[in-house]
Each structure stands twice: as C-alpha cells, then as structure tokens.
Amino acid sequence: MFLVVTILSVMLWTQCFNAIVRPQKDFDLQRFSGPWYRVGLAYDSPEFVPLKKYLQVSKGNITSDTDGNANLTVRGTGKKGCMCGVYHYKKTDLPGQFTYFSDRHQIWKDVTVVESNYTEYSLVVKYKEIMKNFSQVSLYGRFPTLREEILERFRNYSLLLGFSAESILIPSSIDPCSD
Ligand SMILES: *[C@@H]1O[C@H](CO)[C@@H](O)[C@H](O)[C@H]1NC(C)=O
Ligand SMILES: *[C@@H]1O[C@H](CO)[C@@H](O)[C@H](O)[C@H]1NC(C)=O
Ligand SMILES: *[C@@H]1O[C@H](CO)[C@@H](O)[C@H](O)[C@H]1NC(C)=O
Ligand SMILES: *[C@@H]1O[C@H](CO)[C@@H](O)[C@H](O)[C@H]1NC(C)=O
Ligand SMILES: *[C@@H]1O[C@H](CO)[C@@H](O)[C@H](O)[C@H]1NC(C)=O
User: Fold this and answer.
1) For atom 8 of ligand 1, which residue has the closest CA?
2) Separation CA 51–CA 95 (nearest Å)
3) Is residue 163 exposed (0-12), middle (13-18) or buried (19+ Cβ within 10 Å)?
4) Tens digits of per-residue pLDDT, 81-129?
5) What separation in angstroms does the CA of 30 have from each of 38, 64, 69, 70, 73?
6) How far is the CA of 86 from the centre of ligand 2 (A)?
7) C-beta 119 within 6 A of ligand 3
8) Of 130, 140, 119, 135, which Cα lies nearest the Cα of 59?
9) I need a labelling partner for 119 at 20 to 30 A (CA). Which of 33, 60, 145, 175 fits?
10) Ligand 1 within 6 A of CB of 61
11) Is the dihedral of CA 102, 24, 48, 15 positive or negative?
C-alpha cells in the first residue's frame, strides 16, 4: 500500500512538473527573435552564491533560421573584460523547446520558452528536470526594466518550480558591456 501511494505521488509530482515546464502555446520563433535583456534570474546553484552580488542585467540577441534552430548571442562582463558568448539552440519536436550542450556542466540541457508575449517579456527555463546545480529560470524583457506585475509573475513561477526566494534575483544595474 505504501509503495503504491509512493509511486503514485512520484508520478503526480513528475506530471505536475511536466505540466508547469511546457512551452508557450503556438510558439513563434520569428517573433521571439531579436534583442532581449535578461532582467531576472532564479538560480539555486551553490557555486553561484558568491557571484550573486555581481549579477547585472545583460543583453542578448536571438537569431533564428528557417529550420527552427536559434542562436543566442550574449554580451557581458567576464574575467577579462567584455566578452561575447554564443549558445546554439537546436530545435526539438516541441516548438518552443530547444536543446544545447552546456560546456560548463558538460551535459545536454533543454531550454524552454514557457511564456512569451514577444513584445514585452518571456519566461525561459533551462533544464526542466529541476536540479539545483543545473536549472535556471530567466526573465527576459524587451526593455531593461519591466512592470512590477511581470516581475511578480516571474517570482511566483520560480517559487512554484521549487526555487528558493533568495535565489530569485532582479538586478538593478545594467552590464556596461551590454550596450
Ligand atoms: C539580432 O537579431 C535580429 C533578428 O534575429 C537580427 O536581425 C539582428 O541583425 C541581430 N543583431 C545583432 C547585433 O546581431
Ligand atoms: C548560428 O551560428 C552558427 C555558427 O556560429 C551558424 O553556422 C548558424 O547559421 C547560426 N544559426 C542561426 C540560427 O543563426
Ligand atoms: C504584451 O505586453 C505589452 C505591454 O504590456 C502589451 O502592450 C501587449 O499587448 C502584450 N501583448 C500580448 C500579445 O499580450
Ligand atoms: C551540486 O553542487 C554541489 C556543490 O558544488 C556538489 O556538492 C554536488 O555534488 C553537485 N550536485 C550535482 C548533481 O552535480
Ligand atoms: C503571485 O502569487 C500571489 C500569491 O499566490 C498572488 O496573490 C498574485 O496574484 C500572483 N501574482 C501574479 C502576477 O501572478
């Protein structure tokens, strides 16, 4: 009996997460392309704790091809001054969900655009098998600052996925390398 209940609750738990990390309905990559600021970040990794205070709003640009793949180019401050990084997002069978190889963690991760209204904000989840070290929620904005209601949506959603309140950051300064 106990086993059955346990299995059942694990199943429900899994289904619950699958239900929450689901791409934006009728995702439109074309409209998602172009410049985005990363206005907020939820990241619970122990490695990130000492770096939290340095987090700034950075800017990225999404380009896409006709096959449905995308590149994200990010500019920001690195160890040796201004740096530029490119992420190659490969499409999956689910529109709005991509995969890419994380050089840092040496694993394939999925990237899901959970919600986007294209002209103002997007919620993006990295690695939907929510794991402390590997998973992130990002709030993208077409502007470096967003309305309080959108910030609250981002906070609520991150908490719902199990991120701690301390891990949800909305930096107030913009990375000078971004503009
Ligand atoms: C940003 O992306 C848009 C749309 O994909 C593209 O037209 C533009 O050239 C890119 N800008 C830069 C600076 O790469
Ligand atoms: C992404 O970048 C690679 C090379 O860095 C390029 O070959 C490819 O066409 C780009 N794809 C998109 C969707 O911009
Ligand atoms: C997205 O948000 C902007 C700003 O509030 C709003 O003007 C626009 O109508 C929204 N778009 C959609 C598709 O909801
Ligand atoms: C997560 O990071 C902590 C601290 O760096 C480490 O002890 C732990 O093994 C890591 N877990 C995984 C799954 O990599
Ligand atoms: C966030 O969650 C709180 C508490 O559940 C709720 O009252 C509020 O309406 C939510 N805000 C948004 C923007 O979803």
Assistant:
1) 34
2) 33
3) buried
4) 999 999 999 999 999 999 999 988 899 999 999 999 999 999 999 999 8
5) 19, 7, 11, 10, 16
6) 9
7) yes
8) 140
9) 175
10) yes
11) negative
> Is domain 2-169 in CATH 3.40.50.261, yes or no?
no
| Whole-prediction pTM | 0.88
Residue nearest to ligand 5 atom 6, measured at CA: 156
Task: Give 16's contacts (C-beta < 8 A, 6+ positions apart).
Answer: none
N- to C-terminal Cα distance for the chain?
A: 60
If we measure between CA atoms, which residue out of 111, 94, 119 comes closest to residue 32? 119
Residue in 39, 55, 42 with CA at minimum distance from that of residue 141: 39
Query: CA geometry: angle at 14 spanning 8 and 18, to 5°?
Result: 140
For residues 178 and 89, give the distance between their C-alpha atoms in angstroms, rounded to a whole number. 21
Boundaries of every domain in the chain: 2-169
Tell me, using a 6 A CB cutoff, whether residue 64 lines ligand 2: yes
- Residue 63 CA, closest ligand 1 atom number: 5
SS3 23: coil
Distances (CA, A) of 150 to 27, 41, 76, 115, 140: 19, 13, 24, 11, 10
Q: Work out the mean pLDDT of the chain and round it to a whole number.
A: 91
- Is there a contact between 114 and 101 (Cβ–Cβ < 8 Å)? no
